[in-house]
């Protein structure tokens, strides 16, 4: 179970399954960033900084609402469908659950949301 907070900042990390590359070419990176932009708009989040390595991604995300897991799940599923179709593969794209380190939360954000 993951506890999420509104008004929080997280360092999010997700690695490719079996250490495999998840961003093969520039088009993959562009597509991922496009999904990230849609996710920011859809889930009302903010991503002030990010890093895409060949086999994983990291970013700083601010969540005004306690919706981190649903936002990351949407992004991972959307990108996985694209990637698996493009590269003619099946199966999991990312290794387990994403890692989210709570860096801090805004004042008065004592309300948490449990996500299982």
Q: In words, what does this structure look like?
A:
- It is a single chain.
- This protein has 116 residues and is of the alpha+beta class.
- The protein has one domain (2-105): 2-Layer Sandwich (Alpha-Beta Plaits).
- 32% of the residues lie in helices and 33% in strands.
- A 4-stranded antiparallel sheet has the order 3-4-2-5, with helices on one face. A two-stranded antiparallel sheet has the order 1-6.
- The longest helix has 19 residues, at 68-86.
Keyphrases for this structure?
116 residues; Alpha-Beta Plaits; two-stranded antiparallel ribbon; 33% strand; globular
Q: Order of strands across the biggest sheet? A: 3-4-2-5
Summing up helix and strand content along with how strands pair, one would put the structural category as alpha+beta
CATH class: Alpha Beta
Number of helices: 2
Q: In terms of quaternary structure, what is this?
A: single chain
- The overall pLDDT average reads 90
Instruction: Report the radius of gyration as a whole number of Å.
Output: 14 Å
CATH topology: Alpha-Beta Plaits
Strand content range = 25-35%
Number of strands: 6
**What's the main sheet like?**
4 strands, antiparallel
Number of domains: 1
Task: Give the CATH superfamily.
Answer: Transposase IS200-like
Q: What is the rounded distance between the termini?
A: 4 Å
- Please mark out the parts with pLDDT under 50 across 5 or more consecutive residues, or reply none: 107-116
CATH architectural group: 2-Layer Sandwich
Elements, N to C (H/E):
EEHEEHEE
């Amino acid at each position: 179970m993951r506890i999420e907070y509104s008004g929080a900042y997280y360092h999010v990390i997700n690695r490719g399954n079996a250490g495999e590359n998840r961003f093969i070419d520039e088009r993959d990176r562009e597509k991922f960033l496009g999904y990230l932009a849609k996710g920011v708009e859809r889930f009302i989040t903010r991503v002030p900084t990010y890093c895409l390595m060949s086999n994983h991604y990291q970013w700083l995300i601010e969540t005004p609402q306690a919706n981190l897991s649903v936002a990351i799940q949407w992004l991972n599923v959307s990108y996985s469908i694209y990637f698996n179709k493009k590269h003619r593969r099946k199966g999991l794209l990312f290794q387990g659950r994403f890692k989210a380190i709570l860096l801090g939360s805004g004042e008065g954000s004592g309300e948490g949301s449990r996500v299982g």
